[in-house]
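Blinded run. Sample ID left blank on purpose so nobody reads anything into the name before looking at the predicted structure. Input follows.
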Amino acid sequence: MVLLTNDEFLTELTKLFQKARVSGSVTMTMKRYDGRTKPHPRDGTPAVPNPKYKCLIRAQSSSKKISTVVDQEDVEKFSTAYTNLLKISVTGLKRLKKPKKKAIAAQ
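Blinded prediction complete.
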């Protein structure tokens, strides 16, 4: 898994979406991240009193895996860039056909 900066992550994610457009899929996961790389100690030492939580975002397509960590201060900027990327890249979704009101009333 490659840990990238936020901007590099978005550019690599664009490439993953372009590759998956032909065949394949992209899996995204998000989770809260407090910066720990090791498990909690067992000897009862206190944890960090006020951890600064971050957001760990991972993307996977076939054999390529990428990830990034978004700080609290950068969440709004990252989320707007991420939603714009999704609007551009996810074009293969089909719209659901709504049933007509007359057909529903007749039943």
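Unblinding after everyone has recorded impressions. The chain is about 35% helix and 25% strand.
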